[in-house]
Amino acid sequence: MKNAFEVTKEKYGVPEKVDGLKLKFSFDITNPYDRDMQMPFPEYFEITADEFKGLDDYIYSKQCHCYISNEKEITDQKGNPLSSFSKYTDVSIGRELLVDFKAKETRHIVINFEKPFPENIKTITIIGFNSHFRKEADYNALSEDEKEIYLADDNSNYALKIDIKTKKVIDIREQ
């Protein structure tokens, strides 16, 4: 995107126009079983970079203490939206989005972030891959040790730091 941003490189410098980039990434998920299965699927993906601070339309996230964009479209390889091949559980609290998989089926998922960012940004961080899901249990039936482990078991997210030029993951951390 030509001249999408005005960036000030020094405190009282005149803003310069820079081009913008959009991020699109994809990955495959395979059902390893010989039977149909449902997989909990993360639907909230965000991107961040230190340079997002001060840019219009990027919001501050209290969770990561950073500026993010979460405007994205999630589709399969055919362009079908996530809603066409997923559904929510019926549980009112802690609802999960589930994706149906046939036996041994592989799905190609595409995440397309729609908001551009300045092309001079060298790395971008993608947040949203669940590192684990809390095991459901009757809290009152747990031993004291089990309660401590249960309470420490948060739903955390992985953050993948990507080098824009090489298009490679250069760091993974828990958010």
Description of the structure:
With 175 residues, the protein is mainly beta. It has one domain (18-174). It is 5% helix and 42% strand. The chain contains 1 helix and 16 strands. The protein has one helix at residues 144-152, and strands spanning 5-7, 16-18, 20-21, 24-30, 37-40, 46-48, 59-61, 66-69, 72-76, 86-88, 97-101, 106-113, 117-118, 123-130, 157-163, 168-174. The strands form 5 sheets. It has a 6-stranded antiparallel beta sheet with strand order 7-8-6-14-15-16, with no helix packed on it. A 3-stranded antiparallel beta sheet has the order 4-12-9, with no helix packed on it. Strands 5-11-10 form a 3-stranded antiparallel beta sheet, with no helix packed on it. A hairpin with an 8-residue loop joins strand 10 and strand 11 (97-101). It starts with a strand and ends with a strand. The model has no long low-confidence stretch (mean pLDDT 85).
Give short descriptive properties of this protein:
single chain, three-stranded antiparallel beta sheet, 1 helix, globular
Strand fraction band?
35-45%
Unreliable spans are none
Question: Which H/E pattern describes the elements?
Answer: EEEEEEEEEEEEEEHEE
Largest sheet: 6 strands, antiparallel
How much is the average pLDDT? 85
Distance between the termini: 30 Å
Supply Rg: 20 Å
Percent of residues in helices comes to under 10%
Which class best fits the helix and strand makeup?
Answer: mainly beta
Strand order of the largest sheet: 7-8-6-14-15-16
Determine the number of helices (DSSP H or I, runs of at least 4 residues).
1
Number of domains: 1
Query: Rough shape?
Result: globular
Number of strands: 16
